[in-house]
Amino acid sequence: MREIINTPDAPQPIGPYNQAILVKDMLYISGQIAINPETGELETKDLRDETHRVMNNLKAVLKAAGMSLQNVVKTSIFISDMHNFSIINEVYATYFDGSTAPARETVEVANLPKFVNVEISAIAIK
Predict the structure, then answer these.
(1) Which of 11, 48, 62, 119 is the most exposed place for a label (fewest CB within 10 A)?
(2) Could you tell me which InterPro entries the record lists for this protein (predicted)?
């Protein structure tokens, strides 16, 4: 049995997908980009702010499923320029304790939706 998770506190999907799917105790969160859910506008002028927006969007989806960042066991980070890794990683590190941080990979890609600089997806477990 799977449950679709959607919240107005995170950006609405811009394609044929849902914000997250809960299967038993596993939550699969679609990639989040820096869309402000209140305005629908992208927040990409400053990479630190962009990364914070992405992380806050992830937090909103987790909250809608009754979870928090502490439940995250895996993230996937997609970035448009590996030269930006240190800035993105610096912001990302403020959301997770290093000793209990989830597994992750970081991949440079040619382009991302709406030509943003960073997209992060996650898997969480209750």
Answers:
(1) 48
(2) RidA (IPR006056), RutC-like_sf (IPR035959), YjgF/YER057c/UK114 (IPR006175)
Q: How far apart are CA 54 and CA 57, in angstroms?
A: 5
| Single pTM value for the model | 0.96
Give the tens place of pLDDT for each residue, 2-59.
999 999 999 999 899 999 999 999 999 999 999 999 999 999 999 999 999 999 999 9
Query: Which DSSP string corresponds to the chain?
Result: -EEEE--TTSPPPSSS--SEEEETTEEEEEEE-SB-TTT--B--SSHHHHHHHHHHHHHHHHHHTT--GGGEEEEEEEES-GGGHHHHHHHHHTTS-TTTPPEEEEEE-S--GGG-SEEEEEEEE-
Q: Which domain holds residue 50?
A: 2-125
Q: How far lies 124's CA from each of 8, 47, 51, 72, 88, in Å?
A: 20, 25, 19, 4, 21
- What is the pLDDT, as a whole number, of residue 86? 98
